[in-house]
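debug: dumping io for the single-chain case to check the tokenizer round-trip. Nothing else runs in this session.
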Amino acid sequence: MTIAKVLATPCQDTNLAPEPANLALVRAAVLCLVNAERARNGLEPLQSNPQLAAAAESHGREMLAEDYFAHISPAGVTPVDRARGAGYIPSSEVGYVIGENLAWGTLTLSTPAAIVAAWINSPEHLANILEANYRETGIDIQPEAPASLAEHVQGALYTQEFGVIEH
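debug: decoded output
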């Protein structure tokens, strides 16, 4: 998809509250919103990558299971470790750049529109979205937020991995 096509295509389902039955739509909305921001800044859209999606999903599930919210797990696992473990980084012989955005929200603050707007308004998260080197992404949405943060209010946990392998 070209920059012009991204800019000409409105994003769908951006105000959905994540639920088990609509997670594919929510993921697509997040990717569309992130790519729209990249396109507004003259950057090519990111392509979905199944290994990065697997890394994002494993991290999202672990954060919920262990009730934490951080880029580095309590066991010390980093975004690079997760990407390598999912098979995204094929060997130590290739160059790579890996990044990660995390977010959680409750109620209306758990929609793709609210989460991506929060990322865009955060310099560190926006830097990942606008990193010109990134070519691929993997997005996971869990339809609940870490219990210690959300206090059992309906919400969602978002994990987005960014990457490029430089052959």
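debug: round-trip ok. The mean pLDDT is 95.
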